């Protein structure tokens, strides 16, 4: 697994403690914006340990 270099600026997308998974963040974001289309890799579910 690749890691993000320490020199890279990061943004914490955690919404609440214990809910940092991508799909939970995505669900909240799409409630606030109009999304015309989205393409997600199948590996997101396979490799996201919080789903």
Automatic annotation (TrEMBL):
GO terms for biological process: D-ribose catabolic process. Keywords: Carbohydrate metabolism, Cytoplasm, Isomerase. GO terms for cellular component: cytosol. The keyword Endoplasmic reticulum does not apply. It catalyses: beta-D-ribopyranose = beta-D-ribofuranose. SUPFAM superfamilies: RbsD-like. It comes from the Bacteria. Its EC number is 5.4.99.62. GO terms for molecular function: D-ribose pyranase activity; intramolecular lyase activity; monosaccharide binding. The keyword Isomerase applies. InterPro entries: D-ribose_pyranase, RbsD-like_sf, RbsD_FucU. PANTHER family: D-RIBOSE PYRANASE (PTHR37831:SF1). This is D-ribose pyranase. It comes from Xenorhabdus thuongxuanensis. The lineage of its organism: Bacteria, Pseudomonadati, Pseudomonadota, Gammaproteobacteria, Enterobacterales.
């Amino acid at each position: 697994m690749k890691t993000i270099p320490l020199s890279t600026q990061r943004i914490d997308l955690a919404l609440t403690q214990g809910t940092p998974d991508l799909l939970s963040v995505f669900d909240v974001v799409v409630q606030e914006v109009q999304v015309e289309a989205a393409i997600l890799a199948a590996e997101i579910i396979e490799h996201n340990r919080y789903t």
